[in-house]
Amino acid sequence: MMDYFTRNDLHDIVEALATALDAKHSSTLGHSERVAELSELLAKHLGLSAAEREKVHVGAHLHDIGKIGIPDAVLDKPGKLTRQDFLLFVSILSLGMISSKR
Q1: Per-residue buried b or exposed e for 18-41, using 16+ beta carbons within 10 Å of the residue's own CB
Q2: Separation CA 17–CA 28 (nearest Å)
Q3: Which long-range contacts (C-beta less than 8 Å, at least 24 apart) are formed by 11-16?
Q4: Which of 1, 29, 62, 101 is deepest in the core (most CB within 10 A)?
Q5: Helix/strand/coil for 34
Q6: Which residues are catalytic?
Q7: Beta strand segments in 27-100, E
Q8: What local confidence, expressed as pLDDT, does residue 75 receive?
Q9: How far apart are the first and last CA of the chain?
Q10: Residue 21 has what DSSP assignment?
Q11: How many CB atoms lie within 10 A of CB 1?
Q12: pLDDT digits (tens, 9 = 90+) for 66-99
């Protein structure tokens, strides 16, 4: 069994997870990769080091990870969200944000 993951392994895992999440809806297919690429370009423009840009790139792949816990009926709902739907988004996306900081 592997005792550790390389940075490339971790990136591949995160990218695969984000791709699977994006694939749930045809309108978001490739979204996480586009966000990751754009975020990395912005990080470069800001003068961040290569290591910092890599962290930004991987983090950008995870920006929508909290959507995993949101039912499709809420994600696909046309029109304005109800207060209950909005609170569901906030609570689950907050958990995703907390998890990504670990």
Answers
A1: beebbeeeeeeeebbbebbeebbe
A2: 14
A3: 11/54, 11/57, 11/58, 11/61, 14/58, 14/61, 14/62, 15/61
A4: 62
A5: helix
A6: 67
A7: none
A8: 81
A9: 23
A10: H
A11: 2
A12: 777 788 888 888 889 899 988 887 877 666 555 5
